[in-house]
Amino acid sequence: MELYSIFAIYVLFWVTAAFIILPIGIRSHHETGEKMVEGQSDGAPVNFRPLRILLLTTLLATAMFGLFYLNYVYGWIGIDSIDFFDSRERMKGIRS
């Protein structure tokens, strides 16, 4: 796998991990009972910590990418492992 491909796939894992991590532990003003600032959105978080989110996102993305890369190298799960409907065999019949 080329370096650009590794980087691009890691970025995809990172963005996916960010969407998983973002809502974890966030509390709104209604949940904590704190007073809202005038003009503030009802869903605005009270305890938003971007550095914590970046760290957790990077850790999760690295773990997910590590599993992906190890599967790529060692071939633990391939197309034949997840082809429950024998679509490869049916496609061979259509092409003939």
Descriptive report:
By secondary structure, this protein is mainly α. It has one domain (about 5-75). It has 5 helices and no strands. It is elongated, with a radius of gyration of 21 Å.
What descriptive keywords fit this protein?
single chain; 96 residues; mainly alpha; 5 helices
Number of domains: 1
| Intertermini distance | 32 Å
Which radius of gyration do the C-alpha atoms yield?
A: 21 Å
Number of helical elements? 5
User: Helicity level, as a percent range?
Assistant: 55-70%
Question: Which spans of ≥5 residues are poorly predicted at pLDDT below 50?
Answer: none
Judged by helices, strands and strand pairing, the structural class is: mainly alpha
Strand content: under 5%
Question: From N to C, what is the helix and strand string?
Answer: HHHHH
The biggest sheet, with number of strands, parallel, antiparallel or mixed sense and barrel status, is:
none
> How confident overall, as mean pLDDT?
90
Described by the principal axes of the CA atoms, the overall outline is elongated
- Care to count the β-strands? 0
Précis, in short:
The chain has 96 residues and is mainly alpha-helical.
Spell out the blueprint of helices and strands.
Elements: H1 3-21, H2 29-32, H3 50-74, H4 79-82, H5 87-95
Helix pairs in contact: 1-3
